[in-house]
Amino acid sequence: MAPANCHNCGQTSQQELFPRINVAQDPGLKDRVRDGSLFVWECPYCGARNLLRYQTLYHDPDARLMVWLLPGDALPPREVEVAVRDLEGYTLRLVREVGDLIEKVNIRDAGLDDVVLEMCKWVTRQELSAKNPSLSDASLRFLRTEGADNDLVFAFPQGGQMQVVNVGFNVYEDARGIVSRNPSMRPAPGFAQVDAAFLEAFFR
Ligand SMILES: [Zn+2]
Question: FRET pair for 84, CA 20 to 30 Å: which of 40, 44, 125, 166?
Answer without folding.
Answer: 40
